[in-house]
Amino acid sequence: MRLETMLKVVEKYDCNYGYGVYADDTETQVVVADWNNEKLETVMANIERHYPATVLHYDDEVTTCSECGNIISTIPGYYGDIPQFYCSEEGPICAKCAEGDDYQEYIQWILDDSSKANTLMNENDLDTNGFENMNGMFENGFHHGQNDNPASILTEYQDKFPHHEFIFHIDHCGQFDTHFQIYGREF
Asked: pTM of the prediction?
Protein backbone atom coordinates (compact mmCIF):
# COMPACT_ATOMS: atom_id res chain seq x y z
CA MET A 1 0.00 0.00 0.00
CA ARG A 2 1.39 3.40 -0.97
CA LEU A 3 1.98 6.00 1.72
CA GLU A 4 -0.43 8.41 0.05
CA THR A 5 -3.14 5.72 0.20
CA MET A 6 -2.49 5.20 3.91
CA LEU A 7 -2.82 8.93 4.49
CA LYS A 8 -6.18 8.90 2.70
CA VAL A 9 -7.28 6.26 5.21
CA VAL A 10 -6.27 8.64 8.01
CA GLU A 11 -8.39 11.34 6.33
CA LYS A 12 -11.32 8.93 6.06
CA TYR A 13 -11.25 8.47 9.83
CA ASP A 14 -11.58 12.25 10.17
CA CYS A 15 -8.31 12.47 12.09
CA ASN A 16 -5.99 15.45 11.97
CA TYR A 17 -2.63 14.63 10.47
CA GLY A 18 0.30 16.29 8.80
CA TYR A 19 2.90 15.18 6.31
CA GLY A 20 6.20 16.74 5.38
CA VAL A 21 9.96 16.71 5.84
CA TYR A 22 12.27 17.85 8.61
CA ALA A 23 13.64 21.37 8.32
CA ASP A 24 17.20 20.08 8.82
CA ASP A 25 16.81 16.85 6.78
CA THR A 26 14.64 17.28 3.71
CA GLU A 27 15.09 13.61 2.74
CA THR A 28 13.23 12.13 5.70
CA GLN A 29 9.46 11.85 5.36
CA VAL A 30 7.49 12.64 8.50
CA VAL A 31 3.88 11.81 9.28
CA VAL A 32 2.29 13.62 12.22
CA ALA A 33 -0.97 12.54 13.88
CA ASP A 34 -2.56 11.62 17.18
CA TRP A 35 -1.33 8.03 17.10
CA ASN A 36 -3.23 7.28 20.33
CA ASN A 37 -6.40 7.23 18.25
CA GLU A 38 -7.44 3.55 18.07
CA LYS A 39 -8.63 3.98 14.48
CA LEU A 40 -5.03 4.65 13.41
CA GLU A 41 -3.35 1.58 14.94
CA THR A 42 -3.43 -0.41 11.69
CA VAL A 43 -2.34 2.57 9.60
CA MET A 44 0.58 3.23 11.96
CA ALA A 45 1.66 -0.42 11.88
CA ASN A 46 1.51 -0.46 8.06
CA ILE A 47 3.53 2.73 7.73
CA GLU A 48 6.17 1.35 10.11
CA ARG A 49 6.30 -2.00 8.25
CA HIS A 50 6.25 -0.74 4.64
CA TYR A 51 8.04 2.61 5.07
CA PRO A 52 10.68 2.12 7.78
CA ALA A 53 12.50 5.34 6.80
CA THR A 54 9.35 7.37 7.51
CA VAL A 55 9.28 8.93 10.95
CA LEU A 56 6.02 9.01 12.89
CA HIS A 57 5.52 11.86 15.34
CA TYR A 58 2.71 12.64 17.71
CA ASP A 59 1.05 15.92 16.83
CA ASP A 60 2.19 17.61 20.05
CA GLU A 61 5.88 16.86 19.40
CA VAL A 62 6.41 19.01 16.32
CA THR A 63 5.58 22.33 14.72
CA THR A 64 6.36 23.87 11.36
CA CYS A 65 8.81 26.59 10.41
CA SER A 66 6.93 29.81 9.73
CA GLU A 67 9.25 30.57 6.80
CA CYS A 68 9.82 27.30 4.90
CA GLY A 69 6.96 25.19 6.30
CA ASN A 70 9.15 22.20 7.09
CA ILE A 71 8.72 20.20 10.27
CA ILE A 72 10.62 21.11 13.45
CA SER A 73 10.86 18.74 16.40
CA THR A 74 9.99 20.63 19.58
CA ILE A 75 10.96 17.96 22.10
CA PRO A 76 14.43 16.64 22.84
CA GLY A 77 15.23 13.26 21.36
CA TYR A 78 17.91 12.46 23.96
CA TYR A 79 19.79 14.02 26.89
CA GLY A 80 21.89 16.81 25.49
CA ASP A 81 19.61 17.48 22.52
CA ILE A 82 19.14 21.23 22.10
CA PRO A 83 16.51 23.08 20.05
CA GLN A 84 17.26 23.70 16.40
CA PHE A 85 14.78 26.55 16.07
CA TYR A 86 13.78 29.79 17.75
CA CYS A 87 10.44 31.55 18.20
CA SER A 88 10.32 34.87 16.38
CA GLU A 89 7.36 37.23 16.36
CA GLU A 90 6.20 35.52 13.15
CA GLY A 91 6.41 32.06 14.72
CA PRO A 92 8.99 29.26 14.91
CA ILE A 93 12.03 29.64 12.62
CA CYS A 94 14.18 26.59 11.81
CA ALA A 95 17.99 26.67 11.90
CA LYS A 96 18.29 26.67 8.08
CA CYS A 97 16.03 29.70 7.72
CA ALA A 98 17.84 31.51 10.56
CA GLU A 99 21.11 30.93 8.73
CA GLY A 100 19.62 32.42 5.56
CA ASP A 101 20.21 36.02 6.67
CA ASP A 102 23.54 35.17 8.32
CA TYR A 103 21.67 34.86 11.62
CA GLN A 104 21.03 38.62 11.85
CA GLU A 105 17.38 38.35 12.96
CA TYR A 106 18.29 35.51 15.33
CA ILE A 107 21.14 37.51 16.87
CA GLN A 108 18.77 40.43 17.51
CA TRP A 109 16.38 37.99 19.20
CA ILE A 110 19.01 36.72 21.70
CA LEU A 111 21.20 39.83 22.03
CA ASP A 112 21.65 41.13 25.59
CA ASP A 113 18.89 38.86 26.91
CA SER A 114 19.81 36.65 29.85
CA SER A 115 16.69 34.50 29.33
CA LYS A 116 17.78 33.39 25.83
CA ALA A 117 20.86 31.57 24.56
CA ASN A 118 22.36 30.61 21.24
CA THR A 119 21.70 27.03 20.17
CA LEU A 120 21.96 27.50 16.39
CA MET A 121 25.32 29.12 15.61
CA ASN A 122 28.64 27.37 16.01
CA GLU A 123 31.85 29.11 17.08
CA ASN A 124 32.76 29.99 13.48
CA ASP A 125 29.36 31.64 12.97
CA LEU A 126 29.83 33.62 16.18
CA ASP A 127 33.28 34.74 15.01
CA THR A 128 31.95 35.70 11.56
CA ASN A 129 29.37 37.89 13.26
CA GLY A 130 32.02 39.66 15.34
CA PHE A 131 31.55 37.83 18.64
CA GLU A 132 34.43 36.64 20.75
CA ASN A 133 34.43 34.36 23.76
CA MET A 134 34.70 36.56 26.84
CA ASN A 135 36.46 33.77 28.76
CA GLY A 136 33.46 32.83 30.81
CA MET A 137 32.56 29.19 31.36
CA PHE A 138 29.41 28.76 33.41
CA GLU A 139 27.16 26.00 34.72
CA ASN A 140 23.65 25.92 36.03
CA GLY A 141 21.99 22.78 37.32
CA PHE A 142 21.01 20.61 40.24
CA HIS A 143 24.52 19.67 41.42
CA HIS A 144 26.51 21.52 44.07
CA GLY A 145 28.27 24.57 42.63
CA GLN A 146 26.18 24.71 39.45
CA ASN A 147 24.48 27.95 40.35
CA ASP A 148 25.66 30.49 37.78
CA ASN A 149 22.90 33.00 37.07
CA PRO A 150 22.76 34.42 33.51
CA ALA A 151 21.07 37.67 34.64
CA SER A 152 23.86 38.39 37.14
CA ILE A 153 26.54 37.40 34.64
CA LEU A 154 25.10 39.68 31.94
CA THR A 155 24.94 42.63 34.35
CA GLU A 156 28.54 42.01 35.45
CA TYR A 157 29.85 41.84 31.87
CA GLN A 158 27.84 44.90 30.78
CA ASP A 159 29.38 46.86 33.66
CA LYS A 160 32.87 45.56 32.88
CA PHE A 161 32.60 46.08 29.09
CA PRO A 162 30.19 49.00 28.51
CA HIS A 163 30.83 49.18 24.75
CA HIS A 164 29.94 45.54 24.10
CA GLU A 165 26.78 43.62 23.40
CA PHE A 166 26.48 40.01 24.55
CA ILE A 167 24.91 36.66 23.82
CA PHE A 168 24.96 33.44 25.78
CA HIS A 169 26.04 30.26 24.00
CA ILE A 170 24.99 26.81 25.25
CA ASP A 171 27.87 24.35 25.10
CA HIS A 172 26.22 21.33 26.63
CA CYS A 173 22.90 20.27 28.09
CA GLY A 174 22.63 17.28 30.34
CA GLN A 175 19.78 15.70 32.18
CA PHE A 176 20.30 17.96 35.20
CA ASP A 177 22.55 20.81 34.04
CA THR A 178 23.48 23.27 31.33
CA HIS A 179 26.99 24.54 30.51
CA PHE A 180 27.22 27.90 28.79
CA GLN A 181 29.58 30.70 27.79
CA ILE A 182 29.18 34.41 27.18
CA TYR A 183 30.25 35.97 23.89
CA GLY A 184 30.58 39.67 23.25
CA ARG A 185 31.26 42.13 20.45
CA GLU A 186 32.00 45.82 20.42
CA PHE A 187 29.43 48.21 19.05
From this structure: 0.82
